[in-house]
Amino acid sequence: SSKALHQKQYCPRGEMENRLKEQQLDLFSDRTSNHYFDDNQLRLWFHSLAYVLLNLLRDALHHTPLAKAHVGTIRTKLLKVGTLIRVSVRRIHLAMHSSFAYRDLFALVHQRLSQTAVPSG
Question: Are the CB atoms for 105 and 66 separated by under 8 Å?
């Protein structure tokens, strides 16, 4: 049927387009204005790594209001935050403002990511 064809072929293509749009608009991966190929390639690698890390962050946001949020929304609400960072020998201390609206959500995501197993290899 036409609905099945739409669900099977058109919707995945639309999702692919959304992921490309996220990478270009939210992570600025279309900024490859350097005259040297190697520099542009390195910049694209950095943007791709950022996208992978933000998807990991999105996975940690399951069952939250930001579970289906776009990369730009996650970046704006959880990462672009004024924070005082203190680094010592044993730990990194983040001091966020008390009025930070997503403080509890940030703590939840931190807890979930801290429990994630890191592959060894």
Answer: yes
